[in-house]
Task: structure prediction
Amino acid sequence: MSEDIVILMIGVSTFLGALGLLALIWAVKTGQFDDHSKFIDAVKHDNEEDLRDAAMMAEKKAAHKKRIKELERKKCMPAD
Amino acid sequence: MSHIACTHCNLTFSEEVLIKEEVQGETLYFCCKGCQGVYHLLNAEGLGTFYDKLGDTQLQPASETSKSNSDLEKFDLEGFKNKYIKNHEDDLCEIHLIIEGIHCSACVWLNEKVLHKTDGIMEASINYTNNKAKIAWDPHSVKLSHIIQTIRSIGYNAYPYDPALQEERAIATQKTYYTRILVAVFGSMNIMWLAIAHYAGYFSGIEQSYKNILNVAQFILATPVLFYSGWIFFRGAYYGYKNNIVNMDTLVASGALLAYIYSIYAMATQGGEVYFDSVVMIITFVLVGKYLEVLSKKQAVDTLDNIMGSTPTEVTTVNKGIKALVSVENIIIGDTIELKPGERVVIDGVVHSGAASFDESSLTGENEPIYKQKGDSILSGSLCLDSVVMYEANKDISSSLLTSIVNLLEVSMSKKPRIEQLANTISGYFSTTILVIALFTFAGWYFFMGNFEQALIIGISVIVIACPCALGLATPMATLVGISIAAKRGILFKEAGFLESMAKSDVLFLDKTGTITEGKPSVKLAHIQEGFDASLLYALVSTSNHPIAKGIVNYLSHNYEHIPIILLEKIQSIDARGLSAIHDSHVLLGGNVSLLKENGIDDIHISSEHSLFFFSIDNKVVAYFELSDTIRKNAADSIDAIKKMGVEIVMLTGDHEKSAQKVASQVGISQVYSKLLPQDKANIIDKYQKQGLVTVMVGDGINDAVALALSDISIAMGNGADIAIDLSDVVLLDDKIDSLQEAYILSRRTYRGIKENLGFSLLYNVIAVPLAVMGFVNPLIAALSMSLSSLVVVGNSLRIKNLKFKEKS
Result:
């Protein structure tokens, strides 16, 4: 086994691990670990219905954004 | 009669008082209209699965919605918007709310679900731990008042809070700690498996070229751990240096940095072993310990938000007969404010018309309402109980009492004095001494032998063998045993260090009501005359929340069996005097002397040192009761025992001089301060602290909170207010004064154990370090003696368990 292989192995595995670390840090920064009991309790109610619920919220947000854009477009156009 | 649970809230009631309803062949029972309404609303919305998720958890009965919605309009006012609502650039509004009435995760689920279904709400997330919600909505399609109404309609309540005050800062600290710990754990785990290759190579031989690769990899991993994760210790060591204090941070930072620099030297010269693994281990372990302390601080912040959030943001002012809702910030001195029953006072002032009784328990700790009329001053934080009052503001919001208390709390939470811990001081001196010895050893060997590398290695080995292993274990081991014994006896020490601080205390401050006494009036003497009917009195007093009425209810339910339920008509509560009702055209009156006099019963010549409660039927007194607050069991004995330990005892109370002196003489306390407001208590403690005395404060209410936050050690009764428990260092779960005495005995015994352990480990080092200085350190002997010394420390600490306590009655 040459030195290069050892360097490669350590380098690649540390890099992969670092990717995981970055993902975790990102999750902390976006507040996903702020609520400890959510981990345990929220799982109990997790089902298809909640998925639909989340989809509905996403739709609502999209609709809101669209309306804002339209409003802005109207503002840009000269009133006649 | 059989007891049946309400279909909505799961509380059990006897069958005849429940509302019955047939739905699809099933009989449903409800305890009130509110619960019934919520049940049908949920089923209509398709949220009936809530009850499956709820299981057996009991909820608060839903109050009837029409009643509580009178204040909804305040949520749409401009002043409220400026204070709590944040506007996003994409035309959304955001608010932080505390949801009241959440009992379990099913409640959180239900609230989120209902909010999601409301039009115009873009985001709603509720924290499972502290019940705080963040809601973002489109102000064009829904109003905030409607959102609050939605939450109320399903049986919960919501009030806003300002996260910028404390919470944002607490969360930010928590997050950086998390990130630092993640980096530290990642670094140490990876370095450990590289180190295994290293150790294997140490025993079976390894080529220098491979060793170099491992060294460099460890160096790369250790660097961010030391400088990013360990930054906290360098900062702490720097502040310590500026204030001329050698603290725990100095020890950690200097130890880790020295090992790091030496390892770089070993790596560069390709001789000797690297110690990157010890560097990251030290940082990781100490960091995790620090993080646990940060967590407990955040809990206190959550409770503070609760108090601030429940205070009104608008008050009703009356100007030339016109009523208006005005934001509290805009109230100026001289404004006339109208106060309705059930409202909390936010601005101090003087009553100029009307009269009502006020609950000042959050200020004085006394449960008995105080009757105030024209000319009396009212203080913010008190609660108007029974009637409408007009008063003139004589302070603005920023100087009003309630605001100043909350401000005081915020300040004292962050500047609470920490008594220098014995182990920290000793390890501080110890590490300086060791560093100096190591330096001299290095200089000596280099000077006499002329070999730089050998001198350096021996110098380092002095630090390694002195690695305060037994010293580090001395305190934690003893306090761990102490804490576990305490927990078994119902005494909760929140941090190990508090045992040590408590053992050093000189002065003990005791609150009166709720601490030395039970905090609620109970019947001392009952005078029953002809014509008395217990069930009538029971029906009358159970309609009131007044502490005296509660005391009577308590007495009746203990002394009479099977009290039949009687329905009364025209129940009225009369300001600060009592209750009246009608039953079968008989007039029932229950209350104090002035109530009877007003109703034409003049021939009463009974006087008592206790509070009196009369009960009359058709203007004929059929019974009267003497009530007073009782002193807790064994209070006098325990206080006497604590005094004998050499602790000075002082009583602090918001009550009158006379009743304070009476209680004090009964339990044997000679120093009494009475008629104190919350900040006065804190001032007295501060005065003692300025004399260099270590203080312990025992309290139970919001009125003790400032004093508790300031005192070196604070102890709360287990059934006290949430804020008192959160701010305290020690909680007496069983509310017994005996536990206080036990806490003293235990802390002193633990402290003795700590001192013994420290003495031993210092002795060990006095023998081991000179050997290392002379260059005699054989790794095997070092390892053996180290584990032996640790065993001695553990064994000595376990001796604390032999402590005997008397049985609690």
In short: The first strand of chain B starts at residue 3 and ends at 5. The CA atoms of residues 256 and 282 of chain B lie 7 Å apart.
